[in-house]
Amino acid sequence: MNRLDDIPALRAEFPQLARRIHGKPLVYFDNANTAQKPQLVIDAVSDYYRLHNANVARAVHTLGEEATTLYEATRDKLARFVGARSREEVVFTRGTTEAVNLVAYSFLRPTLKPGDEILVSRMEHHANIVPWQLVAAETGAKVVPAPITASGELDVEGTVALMNPRTRLVGLVHVSNALGTVNPVAEIIAAAKARGIATLIDGSQAVPHFRVDVAALDCDFYVLTGHKLFAPTGTGALIARRALLDAMPPFMGGGEMIRKVSFEGTTFNDPPHKFEPGTPNIAGFIGLGAAIDWLQAIGMDAIAAREARLRDAMRAALAAVDGLRLVGDARARAAVFSFVVEGAHAHDLATLLDHDGIAVRSGHHCAHPTMQFFGVPATARASLAFYNTEDEIAVFIDALAKARRMLA
Amino acid sequence: MSEPMALDPIQQEIADEFGFFGDWSERYQYLIDLGRKLPLFPDEWRTEANRLHGCQSMVWVVAEGNAERLVFHAISDSSIVSGLIALTLRVYSGRSAAEILATEPRFIDAIGLGKHLSVTRSNGLSALIAKIRDTAAQA
Q1: What pLDDT sits at residue B119?
Q2: Euclidean distance between CA atoms A200 and A185, whole angstroms
Q3: How far apart are alpha carbons A207 and B109 in whole angstroms?
Q4: What is the ipTM of this complex?
Q5: In this complex, is the C-beta atom of A64 within 8 Å of any C-beta atom belonging to chain B?
Q6: What is residue A266's three-state secondary structure?
Q7: Which residues pair with residue A88 across a beta bridge?
Q8: Which of B28, B31, B82 to mutate to test the interface with A (most CBs of A within 10 A)?
Q9: Looking at residue B118, what is its pLDDT?
Q10: What pLDDT score does A262 carry?
Q11: What pTM, to 2 d.p., does this model score?
Q12: Which class is domain A43-296?
């Protein structure tokens, strides 16, 4: 039997889902912000500190071996989970933001020239805009926004039309955190590749929800974060072609990333360790490995199928709410819904919903350009995961109606 | 300053009004209604210079008068924050700079929403009160 066939039992694996907020059962609809952690992940973190705590890749003693084995096992698990070509292509980072910065500073900046262009969509998270702006400002390159449509879809034709000989990299979010749009990343990667342009895909909101195959996508860089993947914060990865990693200079210097250090000159370790100086978040990555095992046992296809049902139920329920407008209503979308309600500020809605135990995010979702495009200062956002239920959707819709009456 | 003080009459009045309500939704409804009754805030005052930073929602403040009597006008795009503004102005607007500086904002705890207001929203309220007190200190 699949764990998804017994949702109450599955929910019981997530201690925080049992919490009550203001006396009401928690309805956690802020999964795009961060996901809850199953007990197994919490145990993996705590077992590391209780039983195996030692530094990795440095000590020959038993504990050092245990810690290194557990930590490095996550690299294999993650490589398999996202379809990386090899474990050497998986660089551990603190999260998506660090992964994008690594590519911006180590891959792009050394060869970026005045007039070069970095093409990113108008629905990117700030993490896939600002690092490019920083290296562009230092080199005289520019960041060019790729167009999106009124329904929050990528304008594929318009995006491809902007690719030109000066375009050095295309950055695209796989699933938009602000709109829920699932982008046709394979199509954009193919178009960029045909023109010799590097590609970076932000998979933060994709990997928790469906099967991703980085090798099949054939992008140069794929970045992701662990905390949205039911794993501890401070974990993430850059998946990159080995040849690119070999050619890239180190991003940060320190221990573990070197082969030999002398004051006459230092040689560096092979990737991925070349990009992983210092003692990492060992416990966090062991937790990430546990989260991946847990997800694999359920199966990403089963998770995607359940979330598609929740998404359709949520879409239908929101469509029936008077005065509610979806911000972004792409045909291909995840169970992430950004919306505005006539006469009600998003923060007020979120404040009132919180009193009914419902956690939604309100604000700009770290996507100012996206909000500007839709002409709204802020939206409320409900983002679901497989552990959410149709009953919770009903509770949410009732509470939303009540909040709307109060604010009307 | 550390010994407990009685609330001044206006803050006591606010505490009494909120004490009348049974549950959070009634308190919030009252706050939202107070926000709606704020005097009209002209569009031309909604400038970047008048905007208060440190709030998740947009808040604009304009001060008039002198040390003898300072009048504040403020509004937010959030109804709940507008309600908090209405209470704040009831406590501080139309008073002398000396009175403003001598008045601690104790109505926030007294209305029983203190623990319900998110940190960021509370910060917005703190930013408004800081702005009022700064204006008084410089008047």
Answers
A1: 52
A2: 10
A3: 44
A4: 0.87
A5: no
A6: coil
A7: none
A8: B28
A9: 56
A10: 85
A11: 0.93
A12: alpha beta
Instruction: Say if residues A164 and A153 touch (Cβ distance below 8 Å).
Output: no
The residues in B 85-104 lying below 8 A from A, measured between CB atoms, are none
pLDDT at B3 over 50: no
Q: Residue ranges per domain, chain B?
A: 9-138
CATH code for the domain defined by B9-138: 3.90.1010.10
pLDDT in tens, A255-282: 878 888 888 888 888 899 999 999 999 9
**Contact across the interface for B121 and A363, Cβ inside 8 Å:** no
Contact by Cβ (8 Å): A305, A52:
no
Under a CB-based contact definition with an 8 Å cutoff, are residues A144 and A169 in contact? no
- Chain B environment of A402 (Cβ under 8 Å): 25
Residue A126 half-sphere exposure, CB side, CA atoms within 13 Å?
6
Q: Greatest CA separation found in chain B?
A: 44
Q: Which residues in chain B have Cβ-Cβ distances shorter than 8 Å to A406?
A: 25, 28-29, 32
DSSP letters spanning A211-244: ---HHHHT-SEEEEESGGGTS-TT-EEEEE-HHH
- The number of CA neighbours under 13 Å toward the Cβ of B99 is 15
CA trace torsion B115, A178, A107, A133 (10° rounding): -80
The residue to which tokens 């034709």 are assigned:
A157
Residue B115 has pLDDT above 70, yes or no: no
Rounded to whole angstroms, how far apart are CA atoms A380 and B6? 40
Say whether B55 is catalytic. yes
For residues A323-332, give the mean pLDDT. Answer: 96
- B43-92: per-residue pLDDT in tens? 999 999 999 886 678 899 999 999 999 999 999 999 999 999 999 999 99
Cα distance between residue A52 and residue A69, in whole Å: 10
A351 close to B (CB below 8 A)? yes
**What is the token pair recorded at A162?**
């902007």
Per-domain boundaries in chain A: 3-30+299-407, 43-296
CA angle A297, A301, A307 (to 5 degrees): 105
The burial class, CB within 10 Å (0-12 / 13-18 / 19+), for A316 is: exposed
| B82 CB within 8 Å of a chain A CB | no
Fold of A3-30+299-407: Aspartate Aminotransferase, domain 1 (3.90.1150)
Q: What DSSP string describes A132-151?
A: HHHHHHHHT-EEEEEPB-TT
Q: How many CB atoms lie within 10 A of CB A259?
A: 11
- B115 contact partners, CB below 8 Å, separation of at least 6: none
pLDDT of residue A131 exceeding 60, the answer is: yes
| A22 in B contact zone (CB under 8 Å) | yes
Q: Is pLDDT of A4 > 80?
A: yes
Measured in angstroms, the CA of A407 and the nearest CA of chain B are apart by 7
- Side chain identity, residue A142: K
